[in-house]
Amino acid sequence: MPLASNLPSWSTSAFAGTLTALSGASSASHTQGGGGAARGGGQDRHVIQMIAHASLDVIEEVVRKDNAMYLKAVDKFNEWTVSAFVTPGNTKFILLHEAKNDDGIRAFFVDVWELYVKAAMNPFQSAYVGLKSGVFDGRVRASARKHL
Amino acid sequence: MPPPIPLSLSPHVCVLSSPDLDLHLESSSLPPLCNVLQSFCPLPNITTRTTALTSVTHPNFMLRFSDLAEVETVCKEDEEQRAGRMIDWISSRISSKCARWIEDVQKIGEENLKDGRTPWWDELKRCTEGDNTPSRMEGWNHPVATILAVSTTAPNPLQAIIALHTRQTDLPAWVDPNGIRCTLIVHPKNSPLNDDEVAALMNAVKKQYGLHTYLLRLETPSHPPPPVPVPLPLPRLPPPSAIDTTPQKVRPRKDARSPLPRENGAEPVLNTICMSEADIQATARFVREFVTTSLVPWMEKCVLDWNEAFSATRGISSRLFSTTRRFFGTSYTAPSSRSSTPAAPTSPTKPQLNTSSSVTNLDGSLPSQQRRLAEFATMLGDFKTAVAVWEALRKDTRGSSGSEILPLLLAPTPALQLHALHAISTISQSMTELSAYAQTRTLSYAVRWETGILQSDFLNSSVEGDRWLVWAAGNAEEPHAALLLAHAGLLSLKRGCVRRGAMWYVAAARRLEKCGVKPLTMYFLQRAHRLFVARPEKPLSILFPDANGKVADINDTFDAILPGIEHTLGRLMYTTGETAGAVRWFVTLLGRSHGDSNVHSAEINGLQLQDGEDNADKVYLDDFRAAFEHLNATSGKGHQLLDLPVAFTFCQPKETKIRLSGNYFSDYSEIWDERERQWRDFWRTRGRERLHSNCNAFTRDRFWVDVTLHNPFNAAITLSDLTVSVKILDSNSSTSAESGSQLLEVETIDEVFLNAKETRMIPIAVQSTHPAKVQMVNVSYSFLDLLPASESLAIRGPRLHGTANERQNKTYGPDTLLDIEVEESDLQLDIDLKEEALVLANGEIHTMPVRLTNSGSRNIDEVWIVRGEEDPIWPHESESNAATSMQEIIKSTNSLEAPQPFLIDLQKFHRSAVLRPGETVDVPLIFYADNVGDRQLAMMFVFREDGSEFFRSARAVRSISVGPLFSMSVASFPSGTQEYPWTIEVVAENVGASEAQITQVSTLSPTWLCSQIGGGLLGIVMPHQVNQLHLSAARWGAALGGQGTVAFATEKLSEVLRGQPINSTLPPPIDVLCCLMSNDGDVKTTTDPNIRSLMHSKRRNAIAGIVRATHKHIPVSSHPQIFPLYNPSSLDVVVFWKMQHRTGFIMFPNILLGVGHAELRDVIREVEEEKSKRSMFAETQREKAEILEAIRDSEWNTEVNPLVTFTYCKPKLAHNFAEGPCPLPVTFTLRNYSLTRDVRYVVRFGRLKQSHVPRIVLPTKGRQTCRGELAPLQTATFNIKMWATGPGTFDLGGWQVETDVLESSTIDEPDRSSPRTNRHRYVEDAPSSNISSVTILSCP
């Protein structure tokens, strides 16, 4: 086949080494042992995004039944527990975490909510544009350091 | 009605047939007996009884028939090895069939799949359900019955039956031997035995082997009857020897007729059997009879008996054992209930008959009786008993048994999730990687759950069955795990969880990709991509996106998901040979990189992390290049047929500009607009000739389209063959596009290299040979020298708000394109400023040559220069001789009007008054470097041919940098001397880098005559050296026009305050006295036209700046009609310097000498008291207040006490106090500093305050009060005698002056008769500091 000679030695995987976190339900046996996966905004960015994105389904389902703003451990994907906070304006904050820290997460969410409201009150801030404020980022990080 | 029990949980019946029967079936084109019997399953309407003797009707009673010999063989294989083979077998089946599945699914469409079932999941299910190998862990596949079948065609049928019965079963010891044995005698029509003999045989067998004996009469015609469709046998793992990568072949048959054609990919292949109708009826009757008379009653009896034993033990022992366990912590083993389990009633000779089962089967022993009870009860539909027993089992075995079955039997509750999770976690316990056997078990659990639980229950939000499949898939990276994930995704979609479904699809694709199953991988990725792209419905107002000016895009938030999917898809397509598709994906991917969202960085705990996507663009580009080059190589120009949707753009039309030849300063567009406005204002009163726009190009002259390109990628790229597509809108010679291309020459740039994220302006030259209107339509290029693309240069029109429809729906005006008019190049002037950058010293006067060249074809007779209002440029005039007098008078227009464009006298610099084509003239201009810093001098040259009806313009910009030279400060003080009222101190510090010489000091004032006091200042000043000069200022006797100027300003400001329209009268001219002071004989005259122009310009700029800053609310255009250039009492100090060959001057303008008397007091008071005209707008009111405040504080409304008192006495005295107190003569001098008004004063003595510590002796004799009246600038002197009673140092205080400023002056009204009123009154005490003092010494 003439094509074969031109095939590069690619790994066709764009997710190589990253989707192991998504490896399904490694079930209960991996609950404790999966902590070694890379975390944060680094190389697992799209995995984390996919988990956060998928958890929106559950969050929206819970929101229909529950009035609470803080949705504690609303979903779980392997070692990642998803906690969420739904503002009265239906903006959702999603946090993926491994350790259990309900009070800290709640305090963090409340802080972020306040920061978000302040940022959203900026008349030049559109609801559809990400918050690209260094001050906002810095304060969210500071709050994370404090509470998480 | 009980839920359908999965096939794998149905009774397993083994068939052992004699060779003669096999031979007979084969000769009749029939499959083996077990397959024939399986074709009659499921059985309709079978009724069973529960332990409570309730009837349960099974609409479809499932049975599994298999060949005993095969079962015996497979049981010998190691379970782990078999599980491994099973996984490989499933994988090979999937990979070999998936391409066809995808084709079929894509043909009929995903939406049209029957019940939403996918062929891959059906295949996986059938492979799993088809496994009937007995397992050590569970008893479902352990045979519950054995059919021993012979045919009457055997030489000795009875002997054959005996042989079958006496045959030793070769099953392992852990296989439950409990089961019934039935004997089947098949009597074909061509049998040598007649019916009587068969009946006798039957009776003999019944007598010997019990009642479970059946006779099946078959016709089996020699010619096979037409095939009848029957359910396809489930695929089974081939024996170890036969395993290969091809799917299992059904045992070959003589009538191997091709299966019926498939209806679609989702439907299983239909199987057929060639039996006559009578045979079918007979066989069906046998199967039904076997089930209803033998199998079910036997199982019911087992359940009854075992249940009794179970109930008996549960009563005490389980409680007892659980207590024991609690106390002693030993692991529990189920009680060995050696109850009276019924032996197989029909198999008394069964050699390994165990009437009881062992407790546990984990160690390879028999399945427990309890488990068999639960399984039997489940098979018979006795769910009440089954649930109780399974629950007990689950508790007893800590969940290793029962958890997997309970979800099938219980109503949907959240507890089911826990059962399922527990069942899977027990299998995968303490295993980092699941063994093959564990994988097959979890797979079978998942399949049973999916099959055995109603879908509505399975997808219930409390059950969430899709997650069960994901748990079952575990970490296994085999195709079956991937299919479990994919089915979980499908179930999630059915539940409405689109986003989660998409995630599972991606996960499934990822695993399949590792296994190399590319068609399914691509299909799942494409499915996931479609799901990710589809936006969920949001119940938001439709105006919400409009209000935000943007349509929501989920990809803004989750920007890393789609690129990952698309990249994998592209690469997969490329590796599978779908290069065109791959190129499409790569192009989409590159389009997604547009914008800044692909630059991700994250900071965690202060550590800046790059997520590796910085290089993503480079990888995408490389992949795109490789794929596209391959596409080109394989399909020639096939890429042109692709019609690729290029989603990324490089050109920024808004930043793209047209630049004309000679117009290098397109950034100065506002300045040029201002210059054109200046010209139009200037020329309006002189003529009607219009100024041609400078936006037109000329034929045979190049102009440039400055295309701004921005590389949106994070990697370097090249664009080749970059050019601009132009369109000729109308041409005098031709309008066709073809000839237009001949009229125009557009440059093509071979290659442009753009770095990552770089923005660069690329000029593309265009030249037209004929006058035309040219429009720039597109920018075209070849991306990476591969993909030809073009981008429109159109800019979207403004949003329209005219009608209601336009306001409600976004409507934009027509797109605008860059266009330019090309004119005949007949009248052109080239400007050459010669020097590029100019560095001057502060105050330097520089002569700047400008070369003008007539590059057109017509004469130029008139050239005007239009410069900025504050640009100190003037035409150079011939210099005057040195000053002859030290006092000169300049007649000033006294106007703040901006300088007007000036005409270049061509006659003066050229040999004729006409500049002919090709001729050049050098025109000197003088520039005054008035302020330190950098500035751009933008000049517009307006020219025409004599009598022409229009002007043309040319432009020139000059950069000038001005460095500091002198730092000057000027201060004025009232003088204590009689000769002159003011002393002025001028201080100059050389802040430059080299020495400079101060050659001359001049003062300019309408009122004050200055002269030098002493020396200093003039001469060489070294760097950082400070020189000082004192000047005296006295009133200039010939001062005229001061009052007129004051009256003009007062009147105009009054009009402003009253809100009256300002008339266009200008201030009256004024004479300005210039006093020249120099040590040198060569004194520069201020009447020199160059110097005078520059000084006027400097003063005008200074005063205009002050007025602009102070009176912000008065329009700048009306300033010349309100504010005069000179305040009569102002004084300008000009210091001339020389530095080698450079000369210049520094002016310190507008020093106010003299006092004012609040000339606008009455008007201000009047305006302030005017309450009725308050505006309803707070802004207007505030503006008015600010105007009033500014005028009140302005130089035209100053108010100061005009009377200044000077005291003088000898500073030191010696006195013999023995002779009495010391007399102290003190001289008091009072001067009226007002230029316009008389003052009346009263000086009172003896007003000693307590704070005056020194002892001052009041005059004991003489006046206590002095009175008098002073005309403007007049002085009065009187002597007072004070007495000191002792030696010491005394201050001369203790007096007070009362001043009345009179309304009019004796100058204005010399013959006054009426009493004059006071305008202002001031009372001033002797100052407490800076007071004269005296020291008196005592001497004998």
Provide a compact summary of the structure:
Chain A is an alpha+beta fold and 148 residues long.
Explain this structure to me?
- The complex is a heterodimer of chains A (148) and B (1340).
- Helix content of chain A is 40%, strand content 14%.
- By secondary structure, chain A is α+β, with helices and mostly antiparallel strands.
- Chain A has a three-stranded antiparallel beta sheet.
- Chain A is globular, with a radius of gyration of 19 Å.
- Chain A starts with a helix and ends with a helix.
- Chain B is built from 32 helices and 51 strands.
- In chain B, strands 13, 24, 26, 29, 31 and 32 form a six-stranded mixed beta sheet that branches.
- In chain B, a hairpin with a 2-residue loop joins strand 10 and strand 11.
- Chain B starts with 11 loop residues before the first strand and ends with a strand.
- Classes of the chains: A alpha+beta (148), B alpha+beta (1340).
- The interface between A and B is large, with 48 and 77 residues.
What is the element layout, followed by pairings?
The complex is a heterodimer of chains A (148) and B (1340).
Chain A: H1 2-6, H2 45-65, E1 70-77, E2 80-86, E3 92-97, H3 102-120, H4 134-147
Chain B: E1 12-17, H1 19-27, H2 33-38, E2 43-49, E3 55-61, E4 64-67, H3 68-75, H4 79-108, H5 119-129, E5 145-151, H6 157-166, E6 180-188, H7 195-209, E7 213-218, E8 228-230, E9 271-273, H8 277-328, H9 369-380, H10 383-396, H11 406-409, H12 414-427, H13 436-452, H14 455-458, H15 465-473, H16 479-495, H17 498-515, H18 518-533, H19 543-548, H20 554-557, H21 561-575, H22 579-592, E10 601-604, E11 607-610, H23 616-635, E12 657-659, H24 669-684, E13 690-691, E14 697-698, E15 702-710, E16 717-731, H25 737-743, E17 744-746, E18 749-754, E19 759-768, E20 772-783, E21 787-792, H26 804-808, E22 818-823, E23 829-832, E24 837-841, E25 845-854, E26 862-866, E27 873-875, E28 887-892, E29 902-903, H27 906-909, E30 920-928, E31 933-944, E32 950-963, E33 966-974, E34 982-990, E35 996-1005, E36 1008-1013, E37 1019-1021, E38 1026-1035, H28 1042-1058, E39 1070-1077, H29 1089-1110, H30 1119-1122, E40 1130-1139, E41 1142-1152, H31 1161-1169, H32 1178-1192, E42 1203-1208, E43 1212-1215, E44 1222-1232, E45 1239-1245, E46 1265-1270, E47 1275-1284, E48 1288-1291, ...
Parallel strand pairs in B: 1-4, 1-5, 5-6, 6-7, 13-32, 14-22, 24-32, 43-51
Antiparallel strand pairs in B: 2-3, 8-9, 10-11, 12-15, 15-19, 16-18, 16-20, 17-19, 20-21, 20-22, 23-25, 25-30, 26-29, 26-31, 27-30, 28-39, 31-32, 33-34, 34-38, 35-37, 35-39, 35-40, 36-38, 40-41, 42-44, 44-47, 45-46, 45-49, 48-51, 49-50
Helix pairs in contact in B: 4-5, 4-13, 4-18, 5-13, 8-9, 9-10, 12-15, 13-15, 15-16, 16-17, 17-18, 18-21, 21-22, 22-23
